[in-house]
Design brief:
The chain has 158 residues and is α+β, with helices and mostly antiparallel strands. The chain contains 1 helix and 10 strands. The strands form 2 sheets. A 6-stranded mixed beta sheet has the order 6-5-7-2-1-10, with no helix packed on it. A 4-stranded antiparallel beta sheet has the order 4-3-8-9, with no helix packed on it. The longest helix is centred in the N-terminal third of the chain and has 24 residues, at 2-25. The termini are far apart.
Length: 158
């Protein structure tokens, strides 16, 4: 009887501990933005001399109620302009970004023929598998390194 009681007590303790550690891991993020998904899609134009390139899509969750704006993406020492998509539409005014929004930063690295973009030294270059996001939080520059990019296969382009 004592052995059964002891085993039951141990099982209850293990169960209670596992529930407690699960609750700790579900705390909300204190970071101003969280990367939900980071992908890249390589493409080739379907016409001669149409070029090729890579499209980058960084899906983010905005966690801050402070004023936030996005400047650029850095990929392998190249600074890329961005478009911000919210609810399926490109934002023309970044003041429309608020806490709780899910947005996507889109950018394209074009490669035409033998010409390559002139390299610029990134503030925090880590290689081609990651993208560095430059953003401003209350007018102060910040940087966020994405997790490794997931490769997606896009449709053939005419």
């Amino acid at each position: 009887m004592n052995k059964i009681w002891l085993i039951t007590l141990i099982m209850i303790s293990v169960f209670a501990y596992s529930c407690k550690t699960q609750q700790k891991s579900e705390k909300p993020s204190t970071e101003p933005i969280t990367v939900i998904k980071a992908t890249q899609e390589h493409w080739h134009a379907g016409v001669r001399d149409g070029g090729s390139g890579t499209d980058y899509f960084i899906k983010l969750l905005v966690n801050s109620s402070k004023t936030i704006s996005f400047d650029s993406l850095w990929v392998a020492n190249t600074r890329l302009k961005i478009r911000i998509v919210k609810n399926g539409s490109v934002l023309l005014n970044q003041t429309e970004i608020t806490k709780g929004d899910t947005i996507t930063l889109r950018s394209t690295l074009l490669k035409r023929g033998d010409s390559k973009p002139e390299p610029i030294v990134s503030p925090m270059s880590k290689g081609e598998l990651q993208v560095l996001i430059q953003y401003y939080l209350d007018k102060k520059a910040n940087y966020l390194l994405t997790p490794d990019l997931e490769e997606i296969k896009g449709p053939l382009r005419p």
